[in-house]
Amino acid sequence: MNQHITGQPRVLLTIEQAAHQLSLSRTTMFRLIKTGDIASVRIGRARRIAAEAIEDYVHRLSSEQRAA
């Protein structure tokens, strides 16, 4: 999990941090957000992704692939 300097896990990640965590490009991350596959929030002009949203996405992918 992504750790902040204080050692506490980050709750919200930037697009770049989330993409890095999933080993994806920024473009792919924006596409996943646009299609609704990964939920995001806006804070002012900044878009952030909850760490939980990334975990949910990975869990859904795993479940779908097991079912196929």
Automatic annotation (TrEMBL):
Domain Helix-turn-helix span(s) in chain numbering: 12-60
Keyword Ligase attributed: no
One Gene Ontology molecular-function label: DNA binding
InterPro entries for the chain: DNA-bd_dom_put_sf (IPR009061), HTH_17 (IPR041657), SinI_DNA-bd (IPR010093)
Highest taxon above the source species: Bacteria
Keywords assigned by UniProt, alphabetized: Plasmid
The protein's name: Excisionase/Xis
